[in-house]
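Course exercise 7: structure representation. Students receive a sequence record and must write out the corresponding structure in token form. The form below is the worked example handed out in class, using Alkyl hydroperoxide reductase AhpD (176 residues). Read each field label carefully; the graders check that inputs and outputs are placed in the correct fields and that the protein name is recorded exactly as given.

STUDENT ID: A-19
EXERCISE PROTEIN: Alkyl hydroperoxide reductase AhpD
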Amino acid sequence: MSLDALKSRLPEHAKDLKLNLSSLARETLLDDQKKFGTFLAAAYAVGEPETLKAIAAEVEDKLSDDARTGAKAAASIMGMNNVYYRFTHLASTKEYRTLPAKLRMNVIANPGVDKADFELWSLAVSAINGCGMCVDSHEAELRKAGLTSEQIQASVRIAAVVNAVAAVVRAEDALN
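STUDENT ANSWER:
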């Protein structure tokens, strides 16, 4: 399955999502590694099988093995961190923010790909998972690395569309 097959799977009421998938796949603000790594990290974050399979197939020849592994690692570690840090941010007891996390996060320091790419993928996943604390942290790192607001926004636009596509596919499957 590819993005074209995934788009054909979407019903007419999701026409905007089809159009957005097409335009984001042609996005030029991000190089291919950043762009397609974001697609893959977002697909792993949402975990809907059809969306994940289509995007994984689409990026197969567009990303190196290291980049595919890095995008998956960003989704994996943010799946944990977004829950933990969202809790520390939302809990009324502020003491949790001062306690050590005591969670392994080695991949963040050594992602096996360009650090800015990993941060961008982590930001996209954090946006999907709704962790404002992580969004702020990754956005600050991306700024330090020289990424523009438009580039950062492009990754979040990809994450938003992948998330919405997965939700529609899941909903349509529930009806059938």
